[in-house]
Write a structure and sequence with these properties.
The protein is mainly alpha-helical and 425 residues long. The protein is built from 16 helices and no strands.
Length: 425
């Protein structure tokens, strides 16, 4: 399936997911306000880190090796059994830890120990959450895009329904519970979609761990754990710094901007995950790899720029439509933030080469260095320019990131495509 066909098909699911996310944003804006957004963002970071630990952060590895072993079902089953067993054991350990430390975690992330039950809700359904993401990784690797799209649409509709009901009935507490459980409930929809496939069966997902495959998956686990730990941790630190130094409402405005940017960039990153990662994993020829990268740039970057410019021009209407009057000051963040999103998208296309080729050390170094740089830059800019400084640092760090990635892959002696073909072939 070509990049364009994959983009169009996956675009259906992404558009629905974007619409549901934007609808959720509107509901949250009305019922929890800017300060509530900060709490939701903090809990979302906790969810991201917890699910990564529970699953071993191996889903991109599952996608890669499922695609790579597309002609060998025995090896595919070994990958899934190993991943499934890791996910089951990890989910139980993390769930027990969440329950045991629920009050401490609520105080740390939500600034209120009385909300500890949120983490108990999350722990109770964690294993379903983790297995849902595992099944989606398998569908992606097998390139069963129709089923993948159906599962994602079901997940989006579950998210909207659960979040709407819980938030309207229970306010911020309900919104947090919904965030804790909706992905777990989506597991049953995904299960219904794949249940009658020839490859699905409990014995293919739970069983003996293959040591060779475990070693390969752990390479991806290390990359993903660093990414999922560092990214959300930095966002949490930035949000907390803004909360402490500018105010709760400003932290909420920053989080709302992050969520809007996430909805915007979702289409592009989903295309990279659904098409580019399996494609690069299969491709062993440097020239073809470079062609895929250039094609992705030609197709996605101009569209992303046009979309960003359009959103910026209608930003006041966007804020009123998707949020409320209390979010009006977000308008000052749009230019810098969306410039940062475009720059990061351009860089992420190259980052997928690192993931597909298991380039562990360079991936970890770039993730840690640039996230640390982003945090320090944000602190400096927020101190100098207030809330808008956070958006300015997002754009500037994105510019430095893409310049560095281009240097690594096209000019450096150690990793450039043309000087180090053996890494990629």
């Amino acid at each position: 399936m070509t990049l364009i066909k994959t983009s169009l098909l996956n675009g259906v699911a992404v558009i629905i997911k974007m619409l549901t996310m934007l609808s959720i944003n509107k509901i949250l804006a009305i019922y929890v306000g800017p300060s509530g957004y900060a709490a939701i963002g903090n809990f979302q970071n906790a969810v991201q880190m917890s699910t990564a630990l529970a699953s071993g952060a191996i889903n991109k590895g599952v996608t890669k090796y499922t695609a790579e072993y597309h002609g060998d079902e025995v090896k595919q089953y070994a990958v899934w059994r190993t991943a499934g067993t890791i996910s089951l054991v990890g989910s139980v350990i993390v769930a027990i830890s969440l329950i045991g430390f629920n009050k401490f975690l609520a105080g740390w992330f939500l600034k209120d120990e009385s909300l500890g039950s949120i983490f108990i809700w999350f722990a109770a359904t964690l294993v379903l959450f983790v297995f849902n993401t595992l099944l989606l990784a398998v569908l992606n690797g097998k390139k069963e895009i129709h089923r993948y799209v159906m599962a994602n649409i079901a997940g989006s509709l579950f998210a909207l329904a659960v979040t709407t009901v819980m938030t309207v009935k229970l306010g911020l507490y309900g919104a947090l519970v919904a965030l804790a459980i909706y992905q777990s409930l989506t597991f049953f929809a995904t299960l219904a979609i794949i249940y009658k496939t020839s490859w699905f069966g409990l014995r293919n997902f739970i069983g003996a761990v293959d040591r060779f495959i475990l070693k390969n998956l752990l390479r991806y686990s290390l990359m993903a754990l660093v990414s999922v730990a560092v990214g959300p941790a930095v966002n949490f630190l930035i949000r907390t710094y803004i909360f402490d130094n500018v105010g709760a409402d400003s932290a909420g405005l920053w989080e709302a901007m992050q969520r809007l940017g996430g909805a915007y960039i979702m289409f592009f990153t989903s295309v990279l995950s659904v098409y580019l990662l399996p494609k690069l994993s299969e491709t062993k020829n440097v020239k073809l790899i470079v062609n895929e990268i250039v094609n992705a740039w030609y197709l996605l970057v101009p569209v992303s720029i046009a979309a960003a410019v359009f959103i910026y021009l209608i930003r006041d209407n966007v804020i009123l439509l998707l949020f409320s009057d209390s979010f009006a000051k977000m308008g000052d963040l749009f230019l810098w933030h969306f410039a940062g999103e475009v720059l990061r998208l351009t860089a992420w296309i190259l980052t997928f080469v690192m993931i597909s080729k298991s380039m562990v050390m360079i991936f970890i170094k770039t993730e840690v260095i640039f996230n640390a740089f982003y945090f320090v830059l944000t602190v400096v800019f927020v101190d100098s320019y207030g809330l808008v400084g956070a958006a300015m640092s997002y754009a500037l760090s994105g510019l430095i990131y893409i310049i560095s990635m281009v240097y690594i892959f096209f000019l450096s002696n150690k990793y450039s495509f043309h000087k180090n073909r053996d890494i990629y072939e």
